TrEMBL record:
Gene3D superfamilies: Ribonuclease H-like superfamily/Ribonuclease H. SUPFAM superfamilies: Ribonuclease H-like (SSF53098). Pfam families: RVT_3. This is RNase H type-1 domain-containing protein. It comes from the Eukaryota. It comes from Gossypium klotzschianum. The lineage of its organism: Eukaryota, Viridiplantae, Streptophyta, Embryophyta, Tracheophyta. GO terms for molecular function: nucleic acid binding; RNA-DNA hybrid ribonuclease activity. Residues 34-111 form the RNase H type-1 domain.
Amino acid sequence: MVNSDGNLVFLSTDAFVARDSGYAPTGGVARDPEVWAILDGILILLSKGYKRVTIMTNNLEVAQTLSDIDMEDLGITVLRRTLRTLHSEGEWRIKHIRRNHNLVADRLAKLSLSWKSSLQVMDKAPKDILDLLKVDKTNGCFM
């Protein structure tokens, strides 16, 4: 159960809350939005045929919770659904990364405030993101 080309795919999540409006584009920040962002990412990747993925989050609590294979009786529905999906299909690894090493996800979360749609799926990175991808790679995010 790997991608057709055998490559490992990385899913990075992050978010922030706009202080003036209270709007929180997902990608993360609080526990539930972070998990929703991960679940959305997993479902998008599965729909595109990717089943070998490293999920990177700067939320340590979420990384620990999703890595705990003994967590069965979770009170939060989105956590249960995410864990069930992780355990049922593909090869998923959870990796905690420091917030300052999650530059691409952070930038995309902030950019999402200007998007007309609440969900953007990009097959190619925007030009301003390519340099951040190099920095994230240098910081060890893609190991």
